[in-house]
Structures are given as C-alpha cells and as structure tokens.
Amino acid sequence: MMLERIEAAAKRMAGHARLTSLLNAPLLDAAFGKRIFVKAECLQLTGSFKFRGAWSAVSALAKGTSGVLAYSSGNHGQGVALAAARHGLTCVIVMPSDAPEVKIANTRAYGAEVVLYDRATEDRDAIGARLCAERGLHLIKPFDDADVIAGQGTVGLEIAAQASDAGIEAAEVLVCCGGGGLSAGIATALAANAPNLRVRTCEPLGFDDMARSLASGTREKNPSAAGSICDAILTPQPGELTFPILQRHAGKGLSVSDDEAMRAMALAFTHLRIVLEPGGAVALAAALFRDTSPNVIATASGGNVDPMLFREALARFA
Amino acid sequence: MMLERIEAAAKRMAGHARLTSLLNAPLLDAAFGKRIFVKAECLQLTGSFKFRGAWSAVSALAKGTSGVLAYSSGNHGQGVALAAARHGLTCVIVMPSDAPEVKIANTRAYGAEVVLYDRATEDRDAIGARLCAERGLHLIKPFDDADVIAGQGTVGLEIAAQASDAGIEAAEVLVCCGGGGLSAGIATALAANAPNLRVRTCEPLGFDDMARSLASGTREKNPSAAGSICDAILTPQPGELTFPILQRHAGKGLSVSDDEAMRAMALAFTHLRIVLEPGGAVALAAALFRDTSPNVIATASGGNVDPMLFREALARFA
C-alpha cells in the first residue's frame, strides 16, 4: 500500500532530506484576506522536492545495484544525482545537448556522468535502454514509480504535522502538478493523517492535463509540449500510477497564467523571502488568485530559476 | 544572568516565533571548498531576527503596560509592531518623514501607529520621550536592552541544537553585527551550550566599530553614519550592554565590502533559494570571502531588501 510505502520512505529519509518550513506572512494574509501557508520545498536539498523522490527510490534499490540512470535536464536529474552520490552509486543523467550549460555543469557538480544526445537525430529512450542494459543501471522515472511517489508523499506527512501544530483544522492544499507524483504522494498522506486537508492540483493554463483528466475521468493529453514559462511542470499527460490516486483523493484542479505565476514569485520574494521558479510558484499563484477558501496551504515546489527571469518578475510585479 | 534570560525568552517565544532552518548546499560547499551552514533568519516573521528581540521585550513587560514605542524605519520597528499587535498592545513607531513609503505602509500594516518627524528640524528623542510620558508607553531600544539581547540569543540556542544534529563539532559562527544585540545573544547561548562554536562579528568595511572596539578594548565610533548599502547594520558604536559580552566571548571581528555582500546575496539566491538584504548577507559574505576555517555557520539575519537593489545584485553576480 502507498501509505506504508510513504512511511517507510520517511524513515529512510530521516537525517538525509530536509524537513522544510511551513511559512506564512501576516502582511500577505492581510493583503489577500485569508490565511496562506507555504510549504517551502524550494529550501529542500537541490532546490526542489524532487530530491525526496530520488532519495526514496535510490535508497529502496536492491543491494548490488551498480547505479542509476535518469532522463532530465532539470530538478529530477539533480535530485537523482545527489541521492546517488550520497549512496556511493554511479549515476548517469541523459540530457539533450542543447540543455543550458549551467544545468549540465550543476548535474556534473552533483557527481553525475552526463550523457548528451541530439534531440533532432537521436532517440533518448533507446540511448537510456542501451546504457541500462550495458552497465546494469536502474532507470528512475520522474513520477510514475511507486517509490518516487512515496518519497514525495513525505511532504504530506510533514504538512499534516505542521498544520496541526499551527492549529489549521481544515484547508485546501494546493500542489504544483506536472505528472502528479507530488500531488499523489501528498494526497495519500493527507487522506490518512489529515482528512480535512484536501489536495487540489495546480497547473499552467493550457497545460492542465491533470485538471481535465480529473474532470473527464480519463487520462487526457496536453495539446502542446512547450509554451509556458513553468517548464518544470510541463508533462504530456497524467501518470498511470498517479492519476488513479488523485481520482480518489483530489478536488477539482486549478490552473493559472504565466503572469500569475510571476506575480506569485514577486510576492514570495517580498513577503516570504524565498526564491521560487515559475513552476514552483503555480500553487501559490492559485492560492492567491484562484482559490476562495479561508485557509490554504500551497506547496512551493522548487526554486531553481533563471536569474534573468527572476529579475523580470521583480521588475514587473515587486 | 543573561543565559537564564535567554532560556526564559525561548519559553515565552515558543509557538510565536519561527524556529528557522539551518540550510546548506552541496554545490556551494564544493565551490568554496568548505562546509557552509546558513541560519536563515530572513525566514523569521517580519523577515528578520528582530522579531525575536521584540517579542522577548514585549512579552516581558509588566502587566498593565499600555503600549510600546520604538524608533526605527526598518526591521526593529516591524518586529516591535507585530509583537505588540499580537500582545494586544498599542504600538507607536517614530520614523523620519523621508522614510520610504513602503516601510511606513508596512509598519502601519503590522498594526502600529506611525509618528513622523522632520530630521532637519525636530529632535527624535524628545518626541519619543514626550509620547512615552504622555501615553504611558514603554521604549523598546533596538539592542541595548537585556530582554532584546535575550530574545536574539534564542538564535544561539537553536544553532547549538541544529549544529549538534548536523554533526558539526566545531565551527566559526559569523554574525551580522550592528549594535551587537544578535552577536551578544548568540555568543552567550553558545558559550554555555556549544563552546566549540565561536562567534565572530561581521560588519561592512568602514563601519567596523565593533571589530575595532574588540581590538582596542574600548567602544570605538564609526567615522560616518551612512555610506554603505548595508543600512540595517550601520550603528554609530557598540552597545553598552552588548560590548562587554562580546569582549568575553567573541573572536576577532571581520568586515566585508558592499560588493562582497551583493555577491553573497546572489549566491544565496542561486544555492539556498533565500532572499537576503545586504546587511543580512554580510556574515555569509565573510564566510565565503574572508573566513578560512573548514566549518562555518553564517547567520542570514534579514531579507527585507529593495527589489531594485536585489535585481542589481543578480544582474552583476548571479
């Protein structure tokens, strides 16, 4: 069962991942006329919640596994790289050759071997499958993996405890949603530990595959793969494992515009003094501009943002 | 004794001030070849450690006190305003009429009455004294007050416990220093609870009154009152109460340039995803560019920064 898996992941993670703060700000509450809490996963190691799922999956591997492989130019790749390094395992991250230089450099700095491929002429999956077979590596998927979902679910265990400490009896829990790993993990943990806290997924407008899937009852696809600044959470469709969990536990999905995400980044800068990337600010944006409940908990899922984009958010909205 | 006062302040503060995270970042450590921990007081309520001293002082007032007064256009004023509001007390903040509009608005939003005066023609102390006498208000000084120092000292109690949890046996503890309230409080707490963690004060170059005073053994003054972007920690000379505490417990003082503070702001943005103001980044700057010890804990004392200045730090150094 997923709940037991989450609890087991929390045990393996203790002392290795950071218990992140649940922040709030009196002036933000006053400005929006509601109580707003922010689970600051941007303060997690590697700058996003992805380190939790990565740690959970890597630490669950059978003894004797020689290493891991992931496809990711972003937060998942960095999370897997650091988790593997801290377990003394080889780590290969397969990235497109046109990925930003800084992301390639950071992934290497976390100790991973980066294998580049040409998006136009090469097949990423074929390259990964060959490397896994040749070198005995274990593929770690970004969200459709039970141990990855379980790792993300530890955020939900912490939210349940922190909400109780803060005297929050009922609230909407808004979660930035790509493939649904974080949302599904949190929803499972809250259903068991804090049933008055209900998950709602938050996505960029035009990339609301999860919201539409929850509405229709079947896994819908996004019409396009790019076109929002919220790149960290643009996925083609809900996961096979994550979707049924969210069907069971989540409320109606929300979506926000790129400008709303940028405004949330600026407000988080001013009132919470945290750095958010656009995809990591989507839930806070939904809390501020879409949700109408009196108590809301927004996950701030990541803070790996291009400095130029952050400057633009401040110039326009701070 | 100050130590007992700190422990009492911690009890009064429990559930009211935030236990802030001790952050670190593997890539920052790798880039600088040392272990760097950051006590993120920018995540404290009102955006700086000043809320702790304010809460400590306000909560220690005799029953029947009708209200409090502070002189401050910055972090101390906001800390006192929120602490007073949460105690249901009247709060008057005396501010120069040319203070930035946003600071006046924020102080009012925390529930304080703002009394403006003309720097050129009016005497701030005379206005404050008259208001205190007429309205029975209690003056809360920014650092030369035993209960304020005790409140700031709770940061030291937390650092001692968090360093122990992180397996840090010995370290330099670098503290952003204006009048010395935070430094003196932390030094007292660490001397008792973690004697292998030694405080060193950090100041802007040219405003290193505490470093020079520690060297000479007498309270030295700064030659000028303005001229650094680190406005939050520009004070004319060490406090009467804070200086002897630091003479007993602190190592040699450090100082950093404005550009080093800006670089630290940019590195904290990239690696820790926190927002620092220049005066709040001075200790991290000293940790990165001045200190030579293998383990260092830097207090990030505040994050209330002008967005335009933050954008400049990113444009130049991120």
Oligomer: homodimer
The total beta strand count of chain A reads 10
* Anisotropy-based shape of chain A: globular
Q: Low-confidence stretches of chain A at least 5 residues in length (pLDDT < 50)?
A: none
CATH topology tier name of the largest domain in chain A: Rossmann fold
Count of distinct structural domains of chain A: 2
| CATH C-level class of the largest domain in chain A | Alpha Beta
Number of helices of chain A: 13
Into which percent range does the helicity of residues of chain A fall? Answer: 40-55%
The proportion of strand residues of chain A reads 15-25%
Structural class by helix and strand composition of chain A: alpha/beta
What's the main sheet of chain A like?
6 strands, mixed
Structure description:
The structure is a homodimer of 318-residue chains. Chain A has helices at 2-13, 26-32, 50-59, 75-86, 101-109, 124-135, 146-165, 181-193, 209-216, 242-249, 258-272, 278-289, 307-317, and strands spanning 22-23, 35-40, 67-71, 90-96, 113-117, 137-139, 171-176, 197-204, 254-256, 295-300. By secondary structure, chain A is of the alpha/beta class. Chain A has 2 domains: 2-49 and 145-317, 3-Layer(aba) Sandwich (Rossmann fold), CATH 3.40.50.1100; 51-139, Rossmann fold (3-Layer(aba) Sandwich), CATH 3.40.50. In chain A, the strands form 2 sheets. A 6-stranded mixed sheet of chain A has the order 1-2-10-7-8-9, with helices on both faces. The longest helix of chain A is centred in the middle third of the chain and has 20 residues, at 146-165. The termini of chain A are far apart. The relative contact order of chain A is 0.15. The mean pLDDT of chain A is 96. The A-B interface holds A 18, 20-21, 23, 25-27, 30, 40, 42-43, 45-47, 82, 106, 109-110, 266, 269-270, 272-276, 303-304, 307, 310-311, 314-315, 318 and B 18, 20-21, 23, 25-27, 30, 40, 42-43, 45-47, 82, 106, 109-110, 266, 269-270, 272-276, 303-304, 307, 310-311, 314-315, 318.
